[in-house]
From TrEMBL, chain A:
Its cofactor is pyridoxal 5'-phosphate. PANTHER family: AMINOTRANSFERASE, KYNURENINE_ALPHA-AMINOADIPATE AMINOTRANSFERASE, MITOCHONDRIAL. It comes from the Eukaryota. One of its GO terms (biological process) is alpha-amino acid metabolic process. InterPro entries: Aminotransferase_I/II_large, Class-I_PLP-dep_aminotransf, PyrdxlP-dep_Trfase, PyrdxlP-dep_Trfase_major. Residues 68-388 form the Aminotransferase class I/classII large domain. Keywords: Aminotransferase, Pyridoxal phosphate, Transferase. This is Aminotransferase class I/classII large domain-containing protein. One of its GO terms (molecular function) is pyridoxal phosphate binding. It comes from Apatococcus fuscideae.
TrEMBL record, chain B:
Its cofactor is pyridoxal 5'-phosphate. The keyword Transmembrane does not apply. It comes from Apatococcus fuscideae. Residues 87-436 form the Aminotransferase class I/classII large domain. This is Aminotransferase class I/classII large domain-containing protein. GO terms for biological process: alpha-amino acid metabolic process. InterPro entries: Aminotransferase_I/II_large (IPR004839), Class-I_PLP-dep_aminotransf (IPR050859), PyrdxlP-dep_Trfase (IPR015424), PyrdxlP-dep_Trfase_major (IPR015421). One of its GO terms (molecular function) is pyridoxal phosphate binding. Keywords: Aminotransferase, Pyridoxal phosphate, Transferase.
Length: 420, 450
């Protein structure tokens, strides 16, 4: 497996992070296990006999179906999470999948998350105090900026980007300047390295290595928010990568144990499940799992059970097939949007063909200085785009439309006066 | 929202201190909490036909894996989601206060079951634990005080107030709940000594965890009045509300005869009520609902959405369909069924305890919830005295000290234990009590030979 983390996490935790410990009944549960006690009256678990569901089943779009009906599974799906890391079978699958997929060079552990958004709230709360700085790509995921960072009173330190992602020289420069001025050095670096929200950028290997090196120099913890990891299609419809050619994650080069990787079911499967998985060095992962359990009692059991059933039914081959089908779907939509933009907006905007994820980043030319100049009119014409309140001549289009493909062409025709 | 204006109720009651400005009750985090800008955009344009929505990060419903979802219920009911429901179940929440049909159900339920007298708003939650964590975060800064019974929900102590740095004020209680005079006295004294006052009363008024009391209507009004006088908000955490089985009742209570909540007497708009499906249905669903002053509910929704993008839509959709199929009759039937199950377990505990534990321990027959609050006699100073014997006899209970507002303290003995009679079978309840009795007799014998 490799060495235990080189990071002294105890030095990095916030006040609430340091105070975060196992709940009082955990010790009793442990004693019950080690002493083989069946009559357990210490916990606050309601009677399984009361649970309303006897079984539940799903049908997939391809017609496959399955039912969760075995009593212990149905019961577990409706009961509180009895471990801090989610349902043991699902967690095992996720842990194994991460090891196979990323082969992290130092010790890491994995828990079942209640979605990446919550994991972001947890990891920042564990390691930051109000007023602390956090490094982000200069264009970043809106929810992270608004609902995690701004709401908690953290400060964003934006790192300049080019077409390959954050610029290592700028990252170094920010840290160097802060150090020289005696300002506090940020602990966390937040990145969406594949199909970045909003720019659609995927960070190539060499750039990642450079950024990792800077992180090492300044002892930064890298939050790798990889929501679009599986939705890559850089070589078009004919050479979809499946799970075997998705590129090297930060986790895969994490010799130090400084990467916190967040995987999500939201874009790969469906966001309504509120599920994902988090991988980090054991001292940090343990705190994150405890905090997740303490705040929302872990992920909902029914969806965990459904997901496990689905993964069991698919096996490795089925999962591969499904990932390929999702890549094909997103690639198709991206290609349509790209063709429409090429046809209607050449000369009016600059853009890059998306190679992953669901966003296309349009730089507005034609004398537009700020997206606010055009967004209202776009809205009047029935086209919603977003600029995330930035002072910027750029808008983000979501590749995924609910009515496609014909409508793409109509709406992207430049409206008189719109982009002049 | 329904309910008369706070000012009118204030003058009606004479003593009312209606809440008009929620800002002054909020913490630093609470005041900073606004709806995320992209959320605002998404929520604003949800449901408008013919909009080409390039703006959100909502994945396409056509790519979702499930095309059909079915649930079979223990009572024989079959839930089969429509194609639209299956899509909605897999999509992000498009409104901050939850899946709209379920939120509507919750509003109706609150009106039907509590008829709150002040303005209020209802949001679906991710379960009461998370709701509690969020609500306290909106109201309290590090170092602020929460008033509660001397023994309270242990999770509060070790997982919320501890890490967040809140101070817990323990107040005396009896088997009807917090003693209003003790609470009033405590607050008056602190005010006179210019010590910081709590902003919030936290209570589990039915089947209290751990002391298992139920606060009757008269006592509730007295507690409410003290809170009103001292301008405390009341966090009414009521997960066992539907699990009531009073010894003397004319049949099971169902869902319509569950008594008066704090919310139902909330003329000031100071109650934040947490309802949960966890014990009423199942904890693994992670869905509940919250009722509070409209501005506080709004902040709550923003905070919840910001924290985790809201409750899993999957179960919200399934639950809504189930509640529609059950109707109020079905929900009433379900509540009666589970009340019967808990009643039998509680009765088994109480009867076996009367046979085995008389003289060795003191307890009250529980009338709600899942717990018995047992005081050890037999010379026991602290639960720890019994631990080895309990392991040897193969029975566990929760040490009372973990429920104390100050947590376990090595030099303060706590001869109490919280017994959960819910997650064990009838036979295991009997066995458990018999083993406890054996533990206590052995302990007593060992003491006598010293």
């Amino acid at each position: 497996m490799g060495s235990v983390t080189a990071i002294d996490y105890d030095q990095l935790f916030s006040a609430s992070g340091r105070a975060r410990g196992p709940d009082a009944l955990a010790a009793m549960a442990h004693l019950s296990d080690t002493n083989n006690i069946q009559v357990r009256m210490h916990g606050g678990l309601p009677a399984a006999a009361n649970f309303p569901f006897e079984s539940f089943s799903y049908t997939l779009r391809n017609g496959q179906r399955s039912t969760v009906e075995e009593a212990s599974k149905v019961s577990m799906a409706q009961q509180y999470n009895l471990t801090l890391t989610g349902h043991p079978d699902l967690r095992h699958w996720m842990r194994q999948h991460v090891l196979n997929q990323h082969r992290p060079p130092s010790q890491h552990d994995t828990y079942v998350s209640s979605g990446t958004n919550h994991a972001l709230e947890v990891v920042t709360a564990l390691m930051m105090e109000r007023g602390d700085p956090i490094l982000c790509e200069e264009f970043s995921y809106f929810y992270m900026l608004d609902s995690v960072i701004t709401a908690a009173g953290y400060k964003v330190l934006p790192v300049a980007m080019d077409e390959y992602g954050m610029k290592p020289e700028h990252l170094s420069k920010i840290l160097q300047q802060r150090s020289e001025l005696g300002m506090n050095i940020p602990r966390l670096l937040y990145t969406v390295p594949v199909g970045q929200n909003p720019t659609g950028t995927t960070v190539p290997l060499e750039r990642r290595r450079q950024l990792y090196k800077v992180a090492q120099e300044w002892n930064l913890i890298i939050i790798e928010d990889d929501a679009y990891y599986y939705l890559q299609y850089p070589n078009g419809a004919d050479k979809l990568p499946g799970t075997h050619a998705l590129g090297a994650s930060y986790l895969s080069m994490d010799t130090d144990g400084r990467v916190v990787r967040m995987d999500s079911c939201s874009k790969l499967l469906a966001p309504g499940l509120r599920l994902g998985w988090v991988t980090a060095a054991p001292p940090l992962l343990e705190k994150m799992a405890m905090h997740t359990h303490a705040s929302l009692n872990g992920p909902n059991g029914i969806c965990q059970a459904l997901l496990m059933e689905l993964l069991d039914q698919w096996g490795e081959a089925g999962f591969e097939k499904y990932v390929l089908s999702m890549q094909a779907e997103y690639q198709r939509r991206a290609a349509i949007l790209h063709a429409a933009v090429e046809k209607e907006l050449t000369g009016l905007v600059e853009w890059r063909r998306p190679t992953a994820g669901m966003f296309m980043w349009l730089k507005l030319l034609a004398g537009v200085r700020d997206a606010d100049e055009v967004l209202p009119q776009l809205a009047e014409d029935g086209v919603m785009a977003s600029d995330g309140d930035m002072q910027l001549a750029a808008i983000r289009l979501t590749v995924i439309l609910h009515n496609y493909p014909e409508r793409h062409h109509n709406i992207l025709k430049p409206q008189p006066g719109l982009l002049l | 929202m329904s309910g008369s204006a706070p000012e009118a109720n204030g003058s009606c009651n004479g003593a009312g201190h209606a809440i008009t400005d929620i800002e002054k009750y909020l913490s630093t985090d609470g005041r900073a909490r606004q709806s995320g800008s992209l959320s605002k955009l998404i929520f604003k344009f949800t449901g408008i036909p013919d909009v080409v929505g390039f703006h959100g990060g909502l994945p396409t419903a056509e790519a979702f894996p499930f095309s059909g979802i079915k649930f079979s219920l223990v009572d024989g009911e079959q839930i089969s989601l429509s194609s639209d429901q299956v899509k909605a179940a897999q999509q992000y929440n498009v409104k901050g206060d939850g899946y709209p049909p379920l939120q509507t159900w919750a509003e109706e339920a609150v009106q039907k079951l509590h008829a709150p007298p002040a303005d209020h708003a209802v949001s679906i939650t991710t379960g009461s634990n998370h709701a509690l964590d969020i609500v306290l975060g909106l109201l309290l800064d590090r170092g602020d005080h929460v008033l509660t019974e001397e023994f309270t929900y242990p999770h509060m102590v070790d997982s919320i107030t501890g890490p967040r740095g809140y101070q817990l004020w323990g107040v005396s209680y009896d088997n009807h709940g917090i003693i209003p005079e003790a609470m009033d006295q405590s607050l008056k004294q602190a005010a006179a000594e210019k010590r910081p006052l709590p902003k919030v009363l936290y209570t589990v008024p039915i089947g209290q965890n751990p002391a298992s009391f139920c606060i009757p209507a008269q006592r509730r009004q007295e507690i409410y009045d003290v809170c009103s006088r001292h301008d405390l908000l009341i966090v009414e955490d009521d997960p066992y509300w539907a699990i009531q089985f009073p010894a003397h009742s004319d049949g099971e209570l169902g869902v319509h005869r569950l008594g008066e909540s704090f919310l139902s007497m909330d003329t000031d708009g100071r109650v934040v009520r947490l309802d949960s499906f966890a014990k009423m249905l199942a904890p693994g669903l992670r869905v509940g609902w919250l009722t509070a002053h409209p501005e506080l509910t709004a902040r709550f929704s923003y905070a919840m959405h910001g924290s985790c993008l809201g409750p899993n839509t999957f179960m919200q959709v399934v639950l809504h369909q189930m509640l529609m199929q059950w109707g109020w009759e079905g929900l009433d039937r379900h509540c009666k069924r589970i009340q019967g199950i808990y009643r039998r377990l509680a009765d088994t505990f109480h009867e076996t305890a009367q046979e085995e534990l008389t003289g060795l321990a003191e307890w009250e027959r529980p009338e709600a919830g899942m717990f018995v609050w047992l005081k050890f006699l037999a010379g026991v100073h602290d639960y720890d005295d019994l631990l080895n014997l309990m392991l040897e006899q193969k029975v566990t209970a929760a040490p009372g000290s973990i429920c104390h507002v100050e947590g376990p303290q090595p030099d303060v003995g706590c001869p109490w234990a919280r017994i959960c009679f819910a997650a064990v079978t009838q036979d295991q309840v009997k066995t458990g009590v018999q083993r406890l009795a054996k533990v206590l007799r052995k302990y007593q014998a060992a003491q006598q030979t010293r």
